[in-house]
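Hi W.,

Here's what went into the run:
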Amino acid sequence: MSVDIDTVKRVARLARIAVSEEEASRMTGELNGILGFVEQLSEVNIEGVEPMTSVMPMAMRERRDVVADGGIADDIVANAPVSDRNFFLVPKVVE
Amino acid sequence: MTDLTRLTIAEAREKLAAREITAVELTDAYLAAIDSANASLNAYVAPTPEKAREMAKASDARIAAGKAGALEGIPLGIKDLFATEGVHTQACSHILDGFEPRYESTVTQNLWNDGAVMLGKLNMDEFAMGSSNETSYYGPVRNPWRAAGSDADLVAGGSSGGSAAAVAAFLCAGATATDTGGSIRQPAAYTGTVGIKPTYGRCSRWGIVAYASSLDQAGPIARDVRDAAILLKSMASVDEKDTTSVDLPVPDYEAAIGQSIRGMKIGIPKEYRLDGMPEEIEALWRQGIAWLKEAGAEIVDISLPHTTYALPTYYIISPAEASSNLARYDGVRYGLRVDGDDIVDMYEKTRAAGFGMEVKRRILIGTYVLSAGYYDAYYVRAQKVRTLIKRDFDLAFAAGVDAILTPATPSSAFAIADEALAADPVKMYLNDIFTVTVNMAGLPGISVPAGLDGKGLPLGLQLIGRPFGEETLFRTAHVIEQAAGRFSPAKWW
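Here's what came out:
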């Protein structure tokens, strides 16, 4: 399988990365190089093989359903580019 | 006075305990070395001298009070991927511009709890995506090693290039690193240092900036096998904050060093004998086999038939996980923001300006292989092949193999800005061909220096162990180290 420039632009849009025409064109070539490289997996017989979900056999650990942390809103917003009274500020999304 | 930076961790530990030196003296020696070398090597992106002196002073007080921890007063470098409270933590990316976390990663907290001193944050490939440290926002690390008679700059490997270079150039006693496809073992091999990626789940991933969560694992880079064992013991722990950390006691790895390997079964996988592999790598491998045989190990040929598919599998699974993990960098909660016309425009401009080329490439590949219509063909297929890769190892271990010996890398360190590698991302990816299988199967792997090539550059051998077989790896790697000797670069910086 290979991708064309429109697919690269669509995927960049899905990934929320702005790309210029020139970048999209260069990436089309690079992505096709990588997709060509991974293409060899199609020759592996995977009939009846389960996809890996956990590399070490382990039961998912659970913890008690109690509040273990909190009250640190100042810490949470400390690194925000723009914040106001413990809110993250973003451009208007609702008219 | 002898140069304190030349002491191994084990040696410094003894001198500190005997009060022959103080932690402040030791730390000052490293800070002076960083000061004079970092402009040349670019190993540190953010030295923390004030914090280091403060921590060293506290160490001296604890030593005086008879309350010294296992790493009391030992100065370490920390890969920029580990969250360190109030200190530069950017995964060497522009998108985390100015980020100083309000929390500490579990691994670094474990080190501080044992008395270690932080010298600063180390350079790395952006978000740990790279094999040469050239994708760092802060520029490449220069390898302290140069080819004989040459002054050309070589890469220190990646992604933990800063960690490996700092250890090799005596700019820290040891360093933390992480390994998703070879990022501890490949730079260790390129710099004549020892690096171990422990079993998946041995170290907590909490507070480590995520790249590919099912593969990422922390480990140390050190000057010798004993130091690596000392560091791993402190780094490893079970952690409530990482449900994939494993609830098994952490052994005293150091105790394994010096134990005999007589009767141990060492597997030699025929699939690692690549077409066109340099004769020097072949010869090194044969030499390693001979050393282990002389020490009484039994050498057995084994087959790991899906080896060749590990790298393509990696380049589906790791970008897929990365595209999801890196979705959080959106200009809202931390780091860089570039304003836009609306929120989506802000996201797109922020991510376009904040991520470097290699990171964008992997996010796009990951987004593509996870997108509707391609998920089964790429991602699910890759996860099935991963099952087969792990099964290869399971079968070898079930047949009685204790550890597997392979080369660590297909070559020695290459030049910075190598044109052939820059032009073809896949060619660069091939650097990880011997290491990536280990991450796919979650196994422990150690890279240990085993000799120099014709150009006088270090080469490493890799030992792969059973799950939680780190003690076997330290024991066996020490045999190789005893036979091969240690390797240090000639100082030019």
